Amino acid sequence: MPYDLIVVGGGVTGAGVARDAALRGLKTALVERGEPGGGATRTSTHLIHGGVRYLLYDRLTTHATCRDSGHIVRTAGDLLTRLPIVWPVYRGHARGLETVETLFEEYDRFQPMKYGRPHLRLTPEATLRLIPGLKAEGLRGALAFDEWWVDAERLAARTLDSAKAAGAEVFLHAPVEAVLRDGARAVGVRAGGRELRARLVVNAAGPWVDKVARLAGANLPLRLMKGTHLIWKDPKRVPVGLLLEAADRERYVFVIPSPLGTWVGPTDLPGPADPDEARTSDEEIQYLLDSVRRYFADWPRIPDATIVGSRPILGQPGAEKLLSRDFEVFDHEARDGVSGLLTIGGGKMSDYRVMAEAAVDAACLKLGISARGTTQNFTLDGRPVGPVPGWTPPSPALKNFLKTRPRLRELHALAHLGGALAGHLARRAAGRCPARDEDAFRERYA
After folding, report:
1. 366, 383, 266: which is closest to 374 by C-alpha?
2. How far apart are CA 99 and CA 312, in angstroms?
3. CATH number of the CATH domain containing 323
4. How far apart, in Å, are the Cα atoms of 175 and each of 189, 257, 425?
5. Is residue 387 pLDDT above 80, yes or no?
6. Within a domain: residue 170?
7. 36, 154, 268, 430: least buried by Cβ within 10 Å?
8. What's the pTM?
9. How does DSSP assign 296-342, residue by residue?
């Protein structure tokens, strides 16, 4: 019997699509060429975060991502660990202490959506006591905030388990060899030697979505950005997470202590058109080493491992640093004349639940099925989450308008920050933004 839906891709987004569809009662199958989350999910920074840096150029994405991160905390909370992160600010940095604190005061507006805590401003002395070995010269202070760390592959696997419990069938080690066609209509896939037929195919293959779309005679514009992390096996090389101005003073890199080791990265460079050809370069390794050794003179020069992946950024105009991390559902019938095929493209791991919901909403519309998504109401093991806060999402009309206008999107973000900076400086002048010591930090993150 044919399926209602075949999902291509078993990363966290594809797993989310399969779970959402199965919970709505759709007969669903998912095909994945390897293990759950073994592609772009595995190479991510493993954070469920709102994106504080996006406030500099894409405020609405920060808003939307924080809102859906809260759903992930409620539905997959047993997989998440709160990670305090410190952003040290030095004399000569591109952004000064007051500017960075203004950024976090704005982030505090969205943090409650994802159960984050308000930021703390730390004295230089407290920062150095919290982070042994950190460079003291020129340190003006630091800002502390928190995000959620997750074992990303385990999140994908658990989401697939939830999909299977709801009735989805999952085929692992089943690479897609062809998209089956009946004239101009996609009617299924051949994967791992099986022919599976469905009323609709949903392409959720992350950075591979264009390769899958081309199997059906369609295409999808992506700007693949390569991201490398360096890994040291010691899971506690630093006692807290760090967000550091990189060696080129243009980007920032994370230092993330975790059960998977201490990760430094990522880079953000144009990658090859084929994600399977992404490789870490010597220049990337040196860039990340130079970035972290700006702050730790004794940091080891040779990592224990490296990991590289591609981010599926939607094709869009503008400078690389202004690229939106938003997502979109593409209907290839309207776009390419290929009916029966949808693609969910762009986005990031912190958006995976709402990306899945948007994809299945579009699928239900195509199939003439009236069924609302419920993934925000149940944990991955099927328990009700209880009352769901009614946080207002960003304006869809404004998001759509700014999506393809990177300079306007940046001006929108900077206009908010400009007003916020004026208010921050007034509060500082009144003595209402004190710097705290390490005891306040430890009390906050006990």
Report:
1. 383
2. 30
3. 3.50.50.60
4. 10, 33, 56
5. yes
6. yes
7. 430
8. 0.95
9. -TT--SS-SEEEEEEEEEEP--S-GGG----EEEEEHHHHHS-BTEE
